[in-house]
Structures are given as structure tokens and as C-alpha cells.
């Protein structure tokens, strides 16, 4: 049995990309196992090796050229074949990649070079490392680490204890010698397999479209994204929380070729008004079966953490809500659902960061001041911190270097993050000085060469939030698939992202209207009474109750903490805090990154015990 089969023991999909080199044969042999599939270069050597289902691959080859799309991409095979027939250089695929609907990896070969890339959202990530003397690509960092016999990088684990971890720190995988390909870029393996070249294929659009111009483009892109998931027919399910995002996806799905099950989890908070809004929407979809789960049956945040053993290639705060996020999977799968749709991403795309007003204040002061006054009243921003944030003109490298010296300071006023490059990161008291030193060194080193995701801090924040959330959803998708039901989030398709980001921020975010871009985009698709909602339910009560009920499991986890064994956290401080679930600091997400790292390390330990090969990746 291969090293990867031992590690991904539940049949999780993966793929490895190989250059047209004889050493690729040795790598492919190490991947051989049950259900392994292989695509080959024109030379007969392996090109793509891994595990995937038949409906997750569209491939066309013409002579020595080839294009493979792995994931969801409803392109006509003949159209792909025509594009492969015209392919002379792998660098010529930028516009083609940006034109496609869906969420997928693109792999291409031409003129002896191999290109591979993920998605703009980080739902699809690309990595590379040296294996058997050649550079190899893969969609999973842990697979590459196992093939390369790479050791965990203590420094990168310490970085994941930051809350939040700012760009570009999450781009580095957690093993020595394994490299990430940043979102919006592609990697090229040369003919000899010795070098990797990274190039940009996507950049954010200029946000110059008016709401009237942009809304039809958003509607078209989102409708295409949902249609890509419903076109195969059968039964699908869709979240219907009652919020605008999932409601929009559900209405679009109801117009497709699949039978739709709408799924609603009411919150425990008596002020939560999701259910009435969900029922109101369902009443306008007579062909959709509405399934409402009992709020008291919903798992809470922090539930089942000791039982998680999903093989993931990086920590994620999504672990904290895993039990709730997947609790409806068995029932939906039993009801025949082949795919579950979510509205995740709508908050990040159809709304936008108020940080745009940092630049707008200087370019369009009258309009910006009017809006800022509205935001200050809406969010109760204190005046002096707001003015301080607006006066901060530091470049992103200077900001990143400066925050490295502030990691132990109290949490800042939220407005400083809202109007800044992002929320200033923090390390909490239980993180050891040793871990803090590693983090500070890493941040200062990154600041020497970092470029912001956009020169406009508003666009930078928008893209960063897409990337961070995309990483979480990527892991949820992997966990949901293992639990028996694949998941998809159409808002995070590349074309939807580009369409939303192209709209003028003065019209995309305003204190006077709630999600105006989504409302206008869905006008005529979603009934007006459903578009009238301006509230959003919060899960603060669920989280507080979850911490109280699962306190014993958390304490047991800290008592056997892998992070403590590595010298990165203080076990006693964590136990002391967990024993005080009403501590005011716990109203913030102070434990999330630490729990995400700890649960991930526990899962990695489970893999080590089941496979001697993977043990080389232990700390």
C-alpha cells in the first residue's frame, strides 16, 4: 500500500502533477494503490496521478499539449479539445482560466512545461516540493510532505497561533521544503523538472462599475455558478438560513435541473429571526422541500473536538464548528442529496470592507465623510480611534513590521482593523515566549519583501477575507465529503468574485442599505419581501453555551496538548481559562486559533500512528 493510501485512509481525493521527466515514474510508483488514476504525457510518462471521481475531471490532449480541469467546471469537452489544440505555451491560458465557471484546479502541459494552479478563493490550493530529485505539484501539502519525508516546521505552527494571521503568512505550508502557490498565481515546472516559476494569472478588477452596471454581471455569474452544480440533475440540498446569501443560492438552485432540499438550522437564541425569514422564502418555492431541524438537536460550538480525525493539511478554526456544520449530512444524504450548496461567501463579496474609505476620504472627501458619519453611527465607532485609523498612512510592509512588535498588547478597538490594512494580529497570554519569538521573526522577515494584495487597503482587506474564509471552507468541504455529502459554495467561484469586486465601493457598502449589490443582483429572482431583510443572526449564545458544556473535553485536550509538548503554549494557563467559561475575554475568538492548531496536531498524530511513512513528518 502506498504512503498516500495509508495517510488518506478514507479514500480522500488528491492529485500529484509531474513534469515530463523519467524521475516522474519513481514518484508515480510510490502513489500506486487502490483506485489510483493516471493521466500521461504524450511521451507516456505520468502527468497527473491521484484519486478523483469520473465527474471531477475534464481533460483534452492534442499532440504534446494537454489541459485538465479537476473539480467543478461545466465546459464542453469539444471546446476544451479545441483550446488544447491551439495551445503552444502554458502561459497563454490566463484569459481562458478567468473565463471559466466553477471551482477547479487547472493543469496544462505544452512545449515540455507543465502549469498548475488553484482558484482565486483558496478553495483550490496548489503546492510544490522536490521529490525524487524533481519538482512536483499537488493539491495537498500533506501528500507532498509524506512523499518528500519532510518534517513539520515549528515556526509555521507558531504562526498559526496568531489571531488573525495576516497576509502572506498563511501561504507557507507547515512542512519544511513544501511551498504554496499564492492564490491568483500559477506554477510552472520546467522540462527538466528542476525549477519552478511562479507567475500571476489573476488580479483584482478596478472597482469602477456602478451598481446598475455591476448587478446584472453578478446575477449572471452567480446563476452560472449555481447552474454548474444543478445541471447534472438528481437531488441536491441547499442551506436556507433565511439570510440573503443562502436565500439567493436556494432560489437560483430551484430554477435548475435538480430537485432541491432546503435545509434550515434555527439558532438557540430567542432573538434569532432566521427561521421566520426562511419559511417566508420557502413559501415562494413550492417545488422545494423545506427541512427544518430542531434547534435543540443542533450540536454546539466546541462539540466533539476529541473525536476529530480528519486528515487535513493545515489547521483551521472550522474545527470548532465541525459538529454543527456536518450534523445534517446523514439526513440529507439519506434523503438522496448528491451535493450540498451553501451561501458562504456572500458576506465577503456583496458587502465590502469599510477600509475603502481610507483612500476615498482623500479622493472624494465629501462623499466619504458623509458615509463615514453613517458608519460611525451604525457601528458606534469611537471618534479618536476612528480618526487614528484614518490618519495611519503606513504602507503594508511598514504596517506588518510594526504590528510584529505589538503582538502582546490588548485587543485594539475594532474600528482600527475595520479602517486599517486588517485587524492587528495578537498572541494571547498562553502562547509562550519561545513561540512569540518565532512569530516575530517570521513577520519581520515577511515584511521585507511582502506586497499587499492590492494597493487599496479596502480591496486588500476584501481579498484577504476571501482567502482566509476560502481556506476554512476548503477544509469543511473535505470534512463534509468524508462524512458522505460533497459541499459547494458558489459565491466563491472565480467569476463571481471578479464580478463583485468590480463594483464601486461607494455603492457596494453603505450605511444606508444592507447588501445593496446582492439585493439588486437578485431583483426578479428572489421575491422583494425576501430581499427586504436587513438583519443577520449571530451565534454568540450558541458559542458561549458550547464552551460551558464542552469544558471537560477542552481541559482533557489541554492536559495532553501537543502544542504544550512542543513548547508553544502554556498548558496550565489554558486549563485555568477553560475552567472559567464566563471570563469576559472568551466573548472574543481568543481560543479559536489555538484550538484549531491543537486539533490538527492531534489528527496528524493519528495519521502517524497508522502509517510509519508519515511518522517522518512528526515534530
Q: What does this entry look like structurally?
A:
It is a single chain. The chain is of the alpha+beta class and 619 residues long. The protein folds into 4 domains: 1-200, 4-Layer Sandwich (Glutamine Phosphoribosylpyrophosphate, subunit 1, domain 1), CATH 3.60.20; 211-350 and 460-537, HUPs (Rossmann fold), CATH 3.40.50.620; 360-457, no CATH class; 540-610, no CATH class. 42% of the residues lie in helices and 14% in strands. It has a 6-stranded antiparallel beta sheet with strand order 2-3-1-9-8-10, with helices on one face. A 6-stranded antiparallel beta sheet has the order 4-5-6-7-11-12, with helices on one face. 50% of the residues are buried. The model is unreliable at 607-619 (pLDDT under 50).
Helix content: 40-55%
| Whole-number count of domains | 4
CATH class of the largest domain: Alpha Beta
CATH homologous superfamily (4th level) name of the largest domain: HUPs
CATH architecture descriptor name of the largest domain:
3-Layer(aba) Sandwich
Radius of gyration: 24 Å
Amino acid at each position: 500500500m502506498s504512503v498516500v493510501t495509508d495517510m488518506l485512509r478514507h479514500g480522500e481525493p488528491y492529485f500529484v502533477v509531474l513534469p515530463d521527466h523519467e524521475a516522474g515514474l519513481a514518484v508515480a510508483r510510490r502513489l500506486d494503490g487502490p483506485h489510483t488514476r493516471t493521466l500521461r504525457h504524450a511521451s507516456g510518462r505520468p502527468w497527473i496521478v491521484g484519486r478523483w471521481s469520473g465527474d471531477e475531471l475534464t481533460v483534452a490532449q492534442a499532440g504534446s499539449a494537454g489541459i485538465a480541469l479537476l473539480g467543478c467546471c461545466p465546459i464542453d469537452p469539444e471546446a476544451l479539445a479545441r483550446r488544447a489544440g491551439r495551445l503552444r505555451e502554458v502561459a497563454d491560458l490566463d484569459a481562458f482560466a478567468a473565463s471559466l465557471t466553477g471551482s477547479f484546479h487547472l493543469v496544462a502541459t505544452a512545449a515540455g512545461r507543465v502549469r498548475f494552479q488553484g482558484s482565486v478563493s483558496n478553495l483550490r490550493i496548489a503546492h510544490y516540493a522536490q521529490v525524487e530529485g524533481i519538482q512536483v505539484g499537488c493539491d495537498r501539502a500533506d501528500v507532498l510532505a509524506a512523499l518528500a519525508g519532510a518534517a513539520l516546521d515549528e515556526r509555521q505552527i507558531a504562526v498559526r497561533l496568531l489571531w488573525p494571521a495576516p497576509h502572506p503568512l498563511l501561504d507557507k505550508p507547515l512542512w519544511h521544503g513544501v511551498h504554496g502557490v499564492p492564490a491568483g498565481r500559477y506554477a510552472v515546472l520546467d522540462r527538466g523538472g528542476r525549477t519552478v516559476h511562479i507567475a500571476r494569472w489573476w488580479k483584482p478588477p478596478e472597482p469602477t462599475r456602478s451598481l446598475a452596471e455591476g448587478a446584472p454581471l453578478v446575477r449572471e455569474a452567480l446563476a452560472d455558478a449555481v447552474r454548474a452544480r444543478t445541471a447534472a440533475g438528481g437531488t441536491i440540498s441547499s442551506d436556507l438560513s433565511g439570510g440573503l446569501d443562502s436565500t439567493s443560492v436556494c432560489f437560483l438552485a430551484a430554477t435548475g435541473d435538480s430537485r432541491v432540499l432546503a435545509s434550515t438550522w434555527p439558532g438557540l437564541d430567542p432573538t434569532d429571526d432566521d427561521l421566520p425569514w426562511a419559511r417566508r422564502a420557502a413559501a415562494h418555492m413550492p417545488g422545494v422541500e423545506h427541512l427544518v431541524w430542531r434547534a435543540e438537536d443542533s450540536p454546539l460550538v466546541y462539540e466533539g473536538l476529541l473525536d476529530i480525525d480528519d486528515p487535513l493539511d493545515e489547521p483551521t478554526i472550522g474545527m470548532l464548528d465541525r459538529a454543527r456544520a456536518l450534523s445534517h449530512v446523514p439526513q440529507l444524504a439519506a434523503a438522496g442529496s448528491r451535493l450540498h450548496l451553501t451561501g458562504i461567501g456572500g458576506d465577503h463579496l456583496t458587502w465590502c470592507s469599510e477600509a475603502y474609505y481610507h483612500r476615498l476620504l482623500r479622493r472624494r472627501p465629501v462623499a466619504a465623510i458623509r458615509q463615514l458619519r453613517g458608519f460611525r453611527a451604525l457601528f458606534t465607532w469611537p471618534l479618536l480611534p476612528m480618526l487614528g485609523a484614518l490618519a495611519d498612512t503606513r504602507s503594508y510592509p511598514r504596517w506588518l513590521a510594526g504590528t510584529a512588535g505589538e503582538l502582546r498588547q490588548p485587543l485594539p478597538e475594532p474600528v482600527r482593523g475595520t479602517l486599517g490594512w486588517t485587524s492587528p494580529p495578537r498572541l494571547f497570554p498562553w502562547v509562550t515566549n519561545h513561540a512569540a519569538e518565532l512569530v516575530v521573526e517570521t513577520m519581520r522577515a515577511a515584511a521585507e519583501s511582502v506586497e499587499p494584495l492590492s494597493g487599496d487597503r479596502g480591496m486588500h482587506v476584501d481579498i484577504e477575507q476571501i482567502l482566509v474564509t476560502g481556506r476554512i471552507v476548503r477544509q469543511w468541504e473535505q470534512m463534509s465529503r468524508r462524512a458522505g455529502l460533497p459541499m459547494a459554495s458558489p459565491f466563491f467561484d472565480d467569476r463571481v468574485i471578479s464580478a463583485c469586486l468590480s463594483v464601486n465601493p461607494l455603492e457596494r457598502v453603505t450605511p444606508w442599505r444592507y447588501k445593496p449589490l446582492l439585493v439588486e443582483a437578485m431583483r426578479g429572482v428572489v421575491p422583494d419581501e425576501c430581499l427586504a431583510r436587513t438583519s443577520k443572526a449571530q451565534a454568540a449564545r450558541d458559542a458561549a453555551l458550547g464552551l460551558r458544556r464542552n469544558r471537560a473535553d477542552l481541559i482533557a485536550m489541554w492536559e495532553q496538548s501537543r502544542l504544550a509538548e512542543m513548547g508553544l503554549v502554556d498548558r496550565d494557563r489554558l486549563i485555568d481559562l477553560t475552567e472559567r467559561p464566563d471570563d469576559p475575554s472568551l466573548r472574543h475568538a481568543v481560543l479559536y486559533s489555538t484550538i484549531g492548531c491543537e486539533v490538527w496536531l492531534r489528527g496528524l498524530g493519528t495519521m502517524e500512528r497508522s502509517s510509519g511513512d508519515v511518522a517522518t513528518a512528526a515534530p
